[in-house]
Amino acid sequence: MHRYGRRGFAVEIVTILIAMVLMIPFYFLVNVAFKGNSDAFLSSAIALPQPPTVSAFADAWMGSATGSIPQGLLSSAIVTAGSLIVLIGLGSIAAYTMARLPGRLSNALYVLFLIGIILPFQLGMVPVYVVLRSVGLVGSQLGLIVLYSGLLMPLVVFLYTGFARSLPREYEEAAQMDGSSRFQTFRRIIFPLLAPATGTVAILAGLIIWNDFFTQLIFLSGSANATLPVVIYGFVGANVSAWNIVFAGIIVSMIPVLLFYIFAQRKFIQGFAGGIKS
Questions:
Q1: Using one digit for the tens of pLDDT, what is the confidence trace for 26-80?
Q2: Cα(128)–Cα(133) distance, rounded to whole angstroms?
Q3: Alpha-carbon torsion angle 171, 176, 179, 182, nearest 10
Q4: Pair 30, 251: CB distance under 8 Å
């Protein structure tokens, strides 16, 4: 049995101190968000609100000229959910197929997807923008779904492949002996077994899409489908000195992803550990 000694106590103290340092920016964010307009302007970010108020959240909820927070939340949710459906559906099938291919072909495709992860998207942004504009997808949520599905597919296939290779073939062989087709075998047996990897993909890809600002600014700026990062960007410009309202809007944008991570963190850890181990 592992004994709790001085070394364990020292590790806990250091961990707590590091966590406290990392929480300092979050303290500033929450502290300023609960201040009134005059209090946020006259007092420092360290000073506590006098008195605490939620008026900044009400002002932030109303939004600015670029759009409201409810509108941005809805648009971000549509883009994130639509992209995840495509990524999980196609990425899991591609990874399972690649994991069951002969060795050299599987390794070659695996390296190809790794190259897709390494290459920066910014190198091809202008051609992609021209293509999407030519088909009328610039400024639309569908255009962003198509874009993110292509950008993140190498990462998704990489995460799924590591987990799919660790699955035993006996399940598939038993299902095929019972007359199940390959797609039925995947849908009924393999995909449920990939649930930990699916949780990892949903959290990683979902966070990337939800928090991405630059791509959404380029492809949605000036449209009625502005996502939450674009709305908050315009919100900062409209309330450049009202930092309590700006910080309140940022906190509102954090709540959905925090709740999602809390409920899916177990799947995230299982899938990421399984992918590395394989």
A1: 888 888 888 887 787 778 778 888 888 888 888 888 776 667 888 888 999 999 9
A2: 8
A3: 100
A4: yes
